[in-house]
Specification:
- By secondary structure, this protein is an alpha/beta fold.
- 32% of the residues lie in helices and 15% in strands.
- The chain contains ten helices and 13 strands.
- Strands 8-7-6-9-10-11-12 form a seven-stranded parallel β-sheet, with helices on one face. Strands 2-4-5-13 form a four-stranded mixed β-sheet, with helices on one face. A two-stranded parallel sheet has the order 1-3.
- Helix 6 links the parallel strand 6 and strand 7.
- 31% of the residues are buried.
- It binds NADP nicotinamide-adenine-dinucleotide phosphate (NAP).
Length: 293
């Protein structure tokens, strides 16, 4: 944008780097309607005198589907099998058994050899139980997993534990799903101690924001063969060439794509439109993450 613009309502580009180039040219903005669920870069940019709404709900299906896919792909060793397929060597099948022995720590001779693991019956700890977390739980229901839930505040029906109980729940989970916003409280929530509390071979799934996990500690845990991980988000982002995460074992990594599908934009724009209509009618907003002071 090469000129200043006087506007009341701003729908920023979903990519913060592009949106941040536009912001200095805008004057008079009173309402920001983000097309994303995560809005962590906006308050510090626009200040406290602007109301900010997110696209609550628009990412539910796509991000939940990514999460379930990432869990199944990891349990079914799809990254290894894709590698085997590309090598064109059927005899490498036995590597899946060795992988299972390494990640589970169970080296008993099993017959037939273990090639894949089951999701059914596993214990899933969900950290964050908002719009996307509930959708993930709905999609996981047919697998009869045992659900443990954590949010900021405790509640019942279903039982949700307060985040203060996270450490006592981590050792009970086969799979830990992070689906909470990046805030000063959640930054670095999963560090060396929390990773150390996870079961041998447990899977950490981060569909939320990279800085919720301390990257150095994660690299260490993965390289030590302690846990597995599936990440859609990293810290830093973009992940630079040569970063140690790229070479970690037992890691499935996608470049922040979980929320993106052809259905996303129309859904997010519809959410923004509803919010704009309420704003113009002076009605309470549904998705305000910051009210102007
Ligand atoms: N990878 C992607 O492409 C992608 C796509 C969409 C969204 N996301 C990320 O996913 C996040 C969650 O989205 P959502 O729509 O589900 O949000 P949401 O509906 O606002 O729910 C957030 C949940 O996180 C909990 N929470 C907040 N701070 C916490 C903390 N410090 N410790 C523990 N729990 C905490 C909340 O607890 P209470 O219920 O007690 O308030 C709530 O249950 C977004 O903020 C965004 O960063 C990523």
């Amino acid at each position: 944008m090469d000129h200043d613009a006087e506007i009341d309502v701003w729908i920023p580009d979903p990519y913060p780097t592009r949106a941040l180039r536009v912001w200095p040219r805008l004057r008079g903005v009173r309402l920001v309607l983000s097309l994303m669920a995560g809005t962590e870069w906006i308050p510090g940019t626009v200040g406290p005198h602007v109301t900010i709404c997110n696209a609550h709900g628009a990412h539910n299906v796509s991000t939940a589907e990514w999460t379930v896919s990432a869990i199944l792909a990891t349990l079914k060793s799809f990254p290894l099998y894709l590698d085997i397929q590309r090598s064109g060597l059927w005899k490498r099948r036995s590597e899946a058994t060795k992988l299972y022995e390494r990640v589970s720590g169970d080296t008993r001779p099993l017959y037939p050899p273990v090639m894949l693991e089951e999701l059914t019956g596993k214990t899933v700890l969900m950290v964050g139980h908002g719009a996307i977390g509930k959708e993930i739980e709905r999609m996981l229901a047919p697998f009869n997993v045992e659900m443990l839930r954590v949010a900021r505040s405790a509640r019942t029906e279903p039982l949700v534990h307060p985040v203060g109980e996270l450490d006592s729940l981590l050792p009970k989970a086969d799979i830990v799903v992070l689906i909470l916003p990046l805030t000063p409280d959640s930054r670095g929530l999963i560090g060396r101690r929390q990773l150390g509390l996870m079961r041998q071979g447990a899977i950490l799934v981060n569909a939320a924001r990279g800085p919720i996990v301390q990257t150095d500690a994660l690299v260490e845990a993965l390289n030590a063969g302690r846990i597995r991980a599936a990440l859609d988000v990293t810290d830093p982002e973009p992940l630079p060439d040569g970063h140690p995460l790229w070479r970690c074992p037992n890691l499935l990594l996608t470049p922040h794509v979980a929320g993106s599908s052809p259905q996303f934009a129309p859904r997010a724009l519809k959410t923004a439109e509803g919010e704009l209509r309420r704003y113009m009618a002076g009605e309470p907003l549904h998705n305000a993450v910051q009210l102007a002071i």
